[in-house]
Amino acid sequence: PSSYKVVVVGGGSAGLSVASTLAETLGNKSVAVVEPSDVHYYQPLWTFVGSGLKTLDESKMAMSEVMPEKAQWIKDSVASFDPTKNTVVLANGESISYDYLVVAAGIQVNWGKIKNLPETLGKNGVTSNYSAQSVEKTHEFIKAFKGGNALFTMPSTPIKCAGAPQKIMYLAEEQWRKAGIRDQTKINYFTDLTEIRPDSKEAVFNVLAGDAKGTTVTLPYDFLHVTPPMGAPDFIKASPLSNADGWVDVNKETLRHNKFNNVYALGDCSSLPTSKTAAAITAQSAVLKNNLLGDILGDSKEVAKYDGYTSCPLVTGSDKLILAEFSGYTGQPQETFPFDQSKERFSTYFLTKEIIPDIYWKAMLKGKWDGPAKYRKLFGAA
Ligand code: FAD
Ligand code: UQ1
């Protein structure tokens, strides 16, 4: 059939954590997931992959393995939305109709916005942890580095996991220190890369502030880790669902669309004004499912409200980490554990590297992990 109770757009962290519960609750084939990719990645592992502490394989599962059993997988991408007709149009031209729509298509990585990046990525010291195609190159280039100029970049756009551009810098620095080449190495972290010149091995940056604002700076590199500019997916930007910045325009507490009542969104493609992480989605998905199931089942369940929870496990070395947990709405810490998580610790490093991936595959993707809020309350932390 080309009509479903719920259509979920995207089978990433957000889409699957919602679709699992909905399919389980609403029954066989009432939920469709539109997802073009054959593979599902646990992207938070890529910081570890880029530094050689995990393999790419460990971050990867066949989409067919993680797709909820009772959901209908539509293996195509959504090309456009028509929310006044309750339909989405697929790339193959087919229309699918829905009673309720959940948009979870992630953020778009705009590789092409940096001149020469697509053709230089993965070659001659230029790499990025933000792609499955290049993340293993990061480790290869870190190991091959013999000293010189190492550049790490951060764009001026919103990105997913705002800490990731610097985590890999700390891990690379540690390896170069251990290799005894630290004193021959200059490490810089810069914003707003605009061009790579592979022949002269130079990187060009826009100057964003100060007297030289509006000019560019050109720096030589021997190692270059790029975090590319990102933004709302084009097909969302072009649709009636988007706000002025291109994100799916939802209420920041209920996750319901501000104009179309039967539409919800969560995760990186949403307008939710918090930092874009998988950790944030643990709390968002619980709220969304509660509110959407309230609509569908017509019960008088209380409306749930998202508080902006997000987390950045800031790896600072191969045995330590700062587990930042906070509300993006208030800026206040929301630490789970009854100890000071702002200290670098092995325990939180181990948790992030060895335990949370298991929670992700075995519970979050099955719709059974609502995030650490209940443990935070249990431990009585602030
Ligand atoms: P995604 O998981 O990216 O999924 C989006 C899905 O939508 C994809 O499967 C895609 O194929 C599909 N899609 C795209 N376009 C269409 C379309 N037109 N039609 C249908 N489907 C479509 N988070 C943390 O919590 N902690 C961390 O330590 C952390 N570290 C990170 C490090 C790196 C290097 C990276 C890259 C990310 C990191 N993240 C981290 C962020 C985290 O991975 C994302 O926030 C999370 O995956 C977002 O989930 P999502 O479902 O919104 O998007
Ligand atoms: C989390 O639940 C989660 O999703 C599974 C992450 O995604 C990678 C996280 O980074 C973090 C920190 C959490 C929070 C979980 C605990 C136990 C603090």
TrEMBL record:
A Pfam family hit: Pyr_redox_2
Domain FAD/NAD(P)-binding spans what residues? 4-117
Superkingdom per UniProt: Eukaryota
By its UniProt entry, which Gene3D superfamilies does this protein fall under? Answer: FAD/NAD(P)-binding domain
**What protein name is recorded for this chain?**
FAD/NAD(P)-binding domain-containing protein
Traced from the root, the source organism's taxonomic lineage reads: Eukaryota, Fungi, Fungi incertae sedis, Mucoromycota, Mortierellomycotina
